[in-house]
Amino acid sequence: MIKTEQLSQQKLATNAANLEHGFAYLKQVFLARIKLHEQQQVSGEDGDQAAIADEVELPPLAFYQDGSSFSLFIEAHQPSFEEYVILLLALVPHVQSCFFDQIFEAHCEHGAPAEFGGSRQNEHRLFQPTGETALYLLAGGDLDRRFQVQQLLASQHWLAQQNIVRLEAPDTGQSYLSGRLTMDADKVEQFTVGHSPEPDFSSAFPAQKITTHLAWEELVLPDAVMNRIEDIKDWISYNVTMMADWQMARKLKPGHRALFYGPSGTGKTLTATLLGEATNRSVYRVDLSTVVSKYIGETEKNLAKLFDTADGQGWILFFDEADALFGKRTAVNDAHDRYANQEVSFLLQKIEEFDGLIILASNFKTNMDDAFLRRFNSVVHFPFPTEQEREAIWRNNLPEALPWQQGDDLPKSLARYELAGGAIVNAVQYACIKSLARKHKELQQESLLDGIALELEKLGKVFRK
């Protein structure tokens, strides 16, 4: 690990330091392979060149633990030497387009040796790495090692599964490995400027960004609940240091999984958005109605797309009404039950692999599958607010721009009605609209009581003044 004190403050804010270091490392690997290639040419031996890691002593993999998106990605995935080189091969043309040509011009008398493969089907005829480039660079002519490297380029490997690096389909009649190594455009942006474009809501990403203009001081929760929320904030702030500097990545699973449960309107969604605001993280609410499909296998595909897009971004994923998909597994009575249980198992796997914060919200803890509950790092109960807490919620949400009928005693008199925070906000909105429509110069208690009556009616309760 390279200490961040060695870096300038300017580079700390971007991926530049890690990419400069990574590309210098890739250059060392290329020069080592070129040297082995030339030695074989001079000796005239027909023997196969060995894998680069077996023949050349290279420095150990290292990166700056600076909180940049590239370092977070490396920490989360812990790539092998070969995977790291393949990642750099796919990324470097997007950052230093002449990287390979400069190496070959400076160190190869006749240009790039044919064994390195490569494609020049681009506007400026620049060398772009292919599958052949990766195999020769890492394995030389060692067939066994070449086949091992080839597996890293397969569609089943995590680099391809997570849409990070793919082997492009070759032109008709060309060898399978002549396809270019390509990197997803979102990953290029993540590894360079530090973030990907915010995804639009779609079937490929069934989640919508949620924000709030409220502050922590306006969140009314019991002290015990706030202590649990502080625990989650601490994880967001110090997880990178714990996993990397303290070398806990080998012992702990990535990510943090939290369950927020309690009645509707008690602050679960607001707390999730405030966590994002406080830690400078985007929060995305997942639309489970879009994720869940009646067609066999489609739910798993939708979930895979969602997690692949969010992987390595540092986002908070918020699953509202999560028991729709995360609920108790059923006894297997037919094919539908069997596939429903497979969806839950697949979800368990994706949640445990995700390197960020996942928050599941449910009205009832008892609705959740026991297998999920055992995997949560935090289980936070959002209770129905007490009368004292309701008074604070009323006080926080009543408008400041006009006087209140009954003055400062109004929140206390309204707090006796048993409403959760979300219902109180609805009642305030109703009263504000009515006060404007009736051209009142103060917020009328009667309008607030009408709003309360409507909210109680939704709950099937009788309103009594």
UniProtKB/TrEMBL annotation:
ATP-binding among keywords: yes
Which SMART domains does the record associate with it? AAA
Protein name stated in the entry: ATP-binding protein
User: What family does the database annotate?
Assistant: Belongs to the AAA ATPase family.
Q: Which PANTHER family match?
A: 26S PROTEASOME REGULATORY SUBUNIT
Q: Which UniProt keywords apply?
A: ATP-binding, Nucleotide-binding
Question: Sorted alphabetically, which Pfam families does this protein's record hold?
Answer: AAA (PF00004)
Q: Which GO molecular function entries does the Swiss-Prot or TrEMBL record give?
A: ATP binding; ATP hydrolysis activity
Keyword match Signal: no
Matching entries from SUPFAM superfamilies are given as: P-loop containing nucleoside triphosphate hydrolases
Q: Where is the AAA+ ATPase domain?
A: 254-386
In terms of CDD domains, this protein maps to:
RecA-like_protease
Q: Which organism is it from?
A: Corallincola holothuriorum
